[in-house]
Amino acid sequence: WKLRCDPISGHTLGQGPEFLIYFQGKDASDDSRLPNDRFSAVRPEGSVSTLKIQRTEQGDSAVYLCASSLTTA
After folding, report:
1. Tens of each residue's pLDDT in the chain, 73 residues
2. Backbone dihedral region of 55: left (phi > 0), alpha (psi from -120 to 50 degrees) or beta?
3. Taking a C-beta distance cutoff of 8 angstroms, is the pair 52, 60 a contact?
4. If we measure between CA atoms, which residue out of 44, 22, 38 comes closest to residue 30?
């Protein structure tokens, strides 16, 4: 198989990962500047979370990563 990657304009060279949302229990803490009318995160089961993007736009193109832990630091 092949992986095709076409560059698109509007990306900042050297820009690192950006922290978006974290959960404490079922409550989301959103420190990002993402538009709340299109980006939402839920954790209804208490352990599985979902990021939902509605009406995607070209600028939403990114690698979205998720990390989870059953314990806290």
Report:
1. 666 666 666 667 777 777 787 777 777 777 777 777 888 888 877 678 888 889 988 888 888 888 777 666 5
2. left
3. no
4. 22
How many angstroms separate the most distant Cα atoms in the chain? 41
Both structure tokens of 23: 């959960």
The verdict on pTM exceeding 0.85 is no
Residue 39, H or E segment: strand 39-42
- In whole angstroms, give the CA distance from residue 72 to residue 37: 30
Cβ-contact 58, 48 below 8 angstroms? no
